[in-house]
Every structure is written in structure tokens, then in C-alpha cells.
Amino acid sequence: xxxxxxxxxxxxxxxxxxxxxxxxxxxxxxxxxxxxxxxxxxxxxxxxxxxxxxxxxxxxxxxxxxxxxxxxxxxxxxxxxxxxxxxxxxx
Length: 91
Description:
Blueprint: H1 13-22, H2 55-67, H3 72-87
Helix pairs in contact: 2-3
């Protein structure tokens, strides 16, 4: 790898964010030297959405969730992720 560039000093977080949006970090860091980090307690960010479902469908989902002893919102997330994974060929 060629000589690495020096990371500039930033006055604000916004200035740093703008810099990294336009620059490749591999010009500044040798990622081969990076340590692997495990963050087992890190939870992904979530966003609340509104989803309109027919009442009969929601009732059926709640029944299935109850059979699995889990919240129906969690069951919907599991089903959606499984469907997406299958569509990508990763499931």
C-alpha cells in the first residue's frame, strides 16, 4: 500500500462527517491492521411505521404469534426478514 495520508483535525462533527462523505478512508487508514470488534449488545436502530392491515389479517397474525409465544410485531418482523433473505438468495 502506498503512503497513507494524514487525517486532518476537525473543528466539528459536521465538518468531519462532510469530509468522510467525500473521501475514501482507505487513503488514510490501513484497514488490514484493524482489529475485529464484537458488539453483542448493540441493537439496530428502529423506526416506527404505520401499516394498515385488514382486521381479519391482523387477527390471524396475532393468533400465529400467540402460538409462538411472541409479540405479533416481532413475528411480522421475522416473517419480513425471512422473505427478504429468500428473495436475495441468502435464506
